[in-house]
Model the fold of this input.
Amino acid sequence: MDTNRLSKKIEVILNKQVTKEAEAAQIYLSYGCWADSEGYSGIANYLFRHSQEERNHMMKVMQYIMERGGKVKIEAIKTPPSNPKNLKDCFERTFKHEVDNSTAINGIVNLAHEEKDWATFNFAQWFVKEQIEEEKLVMDLLDKLKIAGGPEATSESLFNLDHQLGKSPNEVPLAREASMENPV
Ligand code: OFO
Done:
């Protein structure tokens, strides 16, 4: 008896996402190593923690495929891109990467909607929300860098930024949690 509750197309797109999350983890890992080699140990810490989050995302998609009776295919992952030129380049590339991932998640949502696969549609909503957070996290990094002085940032402001990011949480409050008492 076939107990696979996923269509072929859905199984393929979800497996692609497993690989994508693993690649994202490697990208954050490589940028973290680059940051550390530049002396930004706080930013490295931040990026390493994020790499782990991406591995958790990979695990979530894997578990979902298995839970629905599908087959997980672990594929080879690409070598991460070359090292960033500077912090701005690092954060901008990270932002582009997250936007690209949001597009991939939207692809899953669109396909699930098209196929009326409401279980996958529902599962993918967690990732839709997560991508709002992930994009916001990186937007915040870009803002913080700008406030630190952008290209003219002094060593002192970069030192403070590095220190702050080393301790900053992995999550950000979202607009949906905002109230007049607690604006985000
Ligand atoms: Fe950076 O996000 Fe995974 O999905």
Observations:
- The CA atoms of residues 2 and 55 lie 30 Å apart.
- Helices lie at 8-37, 41-67, 87-114, 118-147, 155-167.
- The chain has a mean pLDDT of 96.
